[in-house]
Amino acid sequence: MGVKENLDDIRERIAKACHRSGRSPDSVALAAVSKFHSRDEILEALQAGHVLFAENRAQEIVDKFPDILAHHAGAAVHFIGSLQRNKVKKILPLVSCIQSVDRREILAEIGKEAAALQKTMPILFELHTGEDSKAGFAGEQSLFEAIDLLSEYPYLRCSGLMTMAPFTREEKPIRDSFRKAIAVRDECVKRYPSLDFSCISMGMTNDFEIAIEEGSTLLRIGTAIFGERA
Q1: Coil, strand or helix: which one is 159?
Q2: Residue 223 has what pLDDT?
Q3: Beta strand 76-79 with 52-55: parallel, antiparallel or unpaired?
Q4: Sign of the C-alpha dihedral, residues 209, 56, 65, 226?
Q5: Parts of the chain with a pLDDT under 70
Q6: d(CA 205, CA 220)
Q7: What does the DSSP assignment read for 76-129?
Q8: Per-residue model confidence as pLDDT tens digits over 45-86
Q9: Residue among 183, 168, 102, 81 nearest 131 (CA)
Q10: Do residues 220 and 203 lie in contact, with contact meaning Cβ atoms separated by under 8 Å?
Q11: Distance between CA 101 and CA 127 in Å, rounded?
Q12: Which of 5, 128, 183, 217 could form a disulfide with 138 if both were Cys (CB 3.0 to 4.6 A apart)?
């Protein structure tokens, strides 16, 4: 199937998972992960009415998205990978969210560059909730210490949390990972009532239906939309 057909299939599966969970399909957003896929494939998704994309490599954003964002109203791209400090300045003018804030040093760099651009930058804090996931804040205390620094960076806007479940066919560790993220989110809401933690980015091609059942509001799906890497 082509990109349009794949998107239609994913939207149907999202709707069914939402129905099972007593949720509205409108409560779950979808970021199409276009890493290693061509600009033409992204354009095919745009022609099918999809506008939100995600990349995990800074150079791919720089190579593919300036023209797309300039010529397609509503198109947006999130950064979801491990971000090096020297790449922040390159991607910040292009991205509408950095989902993978996983350490205080990168928070500071994003805050500095956002101020230089005078651009409000939504961010998600990445949690390490699965044994296979090496990135992210491993404990609540280190996460809270990073969140406490937000007051130093007026151009950063907390939008929620992101996590990645372990790569396994067993359902329990996947659910446990997602439930841990939701529990941390709930604690953040209590601890920081003035901040926004409404976005929970979790769920990929192999586990997005479980993620919906556990409360995800933003999915990151690549292979099921664009196929295997070129």
Answers
A1: strand
A2: 96
A3: parallel
A4: negative
A5: 131-134, 230
A6: 8
A7: EEEE-S---GGGHHHHTTT-SEEEEE-SHHHHHHHHHHHHHHT--EEEEEEE--
A8: 999 999 999 999 999 999 999 999 999 999 999 999 999 999
A9: 168
A10: yes
A11: 9
A12: 128
Assess contact for 173 and 136: CB atoms under 8 A: no
Domains of the chain: 3-226 (3.20.20.10)
Crossing angle between the packed helical segments 58-71 and 39-47, to the nearest 10 degrees: 40
| Closest CA relative to residue 127, chosen from 88, 173, 176, 165 | 165
Q: Give the type of residue at 76.
A: A
> For the whole model, what pTM was predicted?
0.96
C-beta separation of 69 from 94 below 8 A? yes
Cα 111 from Cα 211, distance rounded (Å): 30
